[in-house]
Specification:
Elements (H helix, E strand, L loop, with lengths): L1 E2 L2 H6 L4 E2 L4 E2 L9 H26 L10 H7 L4 H24 L5 E2 L2 H16 L2 H7 L4 H9 L3 H7 L8 E6 L2 E6 L3 H40 L1 H6 L20 H18 L4 H18 L9 H5 L4 H8 L15 H6 L13 H10 L16 H4 L8 H4 L19 H15 L6 H35 L4 H21 L1
Antiparallel strand pairs: 1-2, 3-4, 5-6
């Protein structure tokens, strides 16, 4: 039986179906969805982290690594066991908050879906009431147009008339009387179903992503711009100068609660999600955070292909020369780009070159400008230096560091200011930073450049050998490899 009111008759609207609701069955039998919402992100964290750890230990994709295993052990200022301990503490806090959040939510119900789709169909019908007025405003004869369309396109004629479909009537008889009521068209029902099942949930996820990106960007940036907040809370996370997957949530407990747990909870609430939507949103945030810290520029990783905020982009933020840039997390980079905090120095580190060439070869691209950091070196000279215009002046401790211990050298302009402010911040962290961090990173950079130079010579020698044996390809092969070698030699000469 349908729900039909006096106002429905006045507005000539189709009736809404009756419904009966039931508790939505659990996604996994025996585990309530509210409990799964808490457990699934934690399980996802360790499953994905251990996958990357297994890749690390087996050394399966060394060509895509952003750093060598030696760097992980020599440059990081915290042991792996300390990392695991702090991650578990954060996940305990996350569990308590998640359980409390679940208690504020009503139980998810089923049985009302057909009714909700019909409500959307009614909204579509109501929106059509505006069409005759709009057509009249632009000078069209609404009734004449509808009459011309009626024979060939009767449904379109009904749209022009503001949702009037006389041919679409349902009849019902009770105690000898016959009643005629309007019905929905097939296109209204299809659009209403798409809105209910796909479009509205997509908008909710979009809102949640914007909220969590905004929340994390401004709090994250504040923790870098305020010296006390950095040294008290956020510097702990940056003692991982070479990130790895299961260190993604290595934070001070207060920071972990404020940035990650509370931020995702606020996004979930503001987006108006139900429990099951929240389950997937929290799990997606977890996957993205782990992937951003994995230490690999994998060209076939969908999470790294969908957005420029990926492992290469975030790795810059963990280096001594880029620690005050690339604040955006976890999904997109729009706040960095809007507010001028994106790194502008390109792939300044020679350590990125191997991964860049491997990724470029995998993607079969010939563009030498392909970057790991998604940064264009030309931006350093052309972009507004704000908010870094005073960073070099305030980097008072940096003058005590020898120039040779400040490698890699950023290009002149904004990147130079960004690097100066970042290195000063490393020096401000007396416990996990200090001059030794810069000295170690410079040493690793020199080693990477040396390896790159030797690799360039080997490629050049191999090219000459190929040229001798394949005389028919002499000009093309020699020219191509000479160009590649020229790029590498030019890179070295600038440094």
């Amino acid at each position: 039986m349908a729900n039909y009111t006096r106002s429905d008759i006045y507005l000539d609207l189709p009736p809404l179906p009756e419904y009966q609701t039931f508790l939505l069955p659990s996604l996994l039998p025996g585990i309530p969805d509210k409990l799964l919402t808490v457990v699934l992100p934690i399980a996802a964290y360790w499953v994905l982290s251990m996958l990357f750890h297994w890749i690390d230990t087996k050394d399966y994709f060394p060509q895509y690594r952003l750093h060598t295993p030696a760097e992980v052990s020599s440059r990081n200022k915290v042991s792996r066991w300390e990392v695991i301990r702090d991650v578990v503490i954060q996940q305990m806090i996350q569990t308590v908050v998640g359980w409390g959040l679940g208690m504020t939510e009503p139980d998810d119900l089923t049985g009302k879906e057909e009714y909700d789709v019909a409500v959307w169909a009614r909204r579509i019908r109501m929106a059509q009431r505006l069409i005759p007025t709009l057509l009249t405003l632009i000078g069209l004869d609404v009734r004449g147009l509808a009459k011309n369309l009626d024979q060939s396109y009767p449904v379109l004629a009904g749209v022009v008339l503001g949702g009037q479909y006389p041919a679409l009537q349902t009849t019902s008889g009770q105690t000898g009387s016959v009643a005629s009521t309007p019905a929905f068209t097939s296109w209204e029902k299809t659009l209403a179903s798409a809105l209910y099942w796909f479009i509205v949930p997509s908008i909710q996820y979009g809102i949640a992503i914007v909220v969590v990106d905004t929340w994390q960007y401004f709090l994250h940036r504040a923790m870098h711009m305020n010296k006390w907040m950095y040294t008290t809370f956020h510097s702990r996370h940056h003692r991982l100068y070479v990130p790895y997957a299961y260190g993604a949530l290595y934070n001070h407990p207060f920071e972990g609660f404020l940035l990650d747990t509370l931020g995702a909870s606020v996004a979930y609430k503001l987006a108006g999600m139900n429990t099951r939507q929240g389950m997937w949103f929290f799990t997606a945030c977890t996957f993205k955070t782990v992937d951003d810290h994995c230490g690999y520029a994998l060209p076939w990783d969908p999470l790294q292909r969908l957005t420029s905020n990926n492992a290469g982009y975030h790795d810059v933020h963990h280096q001594s020369w880029g620690i005050k840039t690339n604040f955006s997390q976890p999904f997109f980079t729009f706040w960095d780009r809007l507010l001028g905090t994106v790194w502008t120095g390109g792939d300044v580190s020679a350590r990125y070159e191997k991964a860049r060439l491997a990724a470029q070869k995998k993607a079969d691209q010939g563009d030498e400008r392909t970057t790991i950091t998604h940064s264009n070196v030309a931006d350093s000279a052309t972009q507004d230096p704000r908010p870094y215009q005073d960073d070099k002046k305030h980097a008072t401790d940096l003058s005590s560091i020898r120039l040779q211990d400040q490698e890699p050298f950023p290009p002149p302009g904004k990147a130079e200011l960004q690097a100066a402010g970042s290195r000063q911040q490393v020096l401000d962290d007396k416990k996990g930073g200090g001059p030794q961090v810069l000295i170690q990173e410079a040493a690793e950079e020199k080693e990477a450049r040396s390896l790159l130079r030797r690799a360039g010579r080997r490629r050049t020698a191999s090219s000459l050998s190929q040229t001798d044996s394949l005389k028919g390809l002499k000009d093309r092969v020699t020219g191509s490899m000479h160009g590649r070698a020229g790029v590498l030699i030019g890179m070295e000469s600038k440094r």
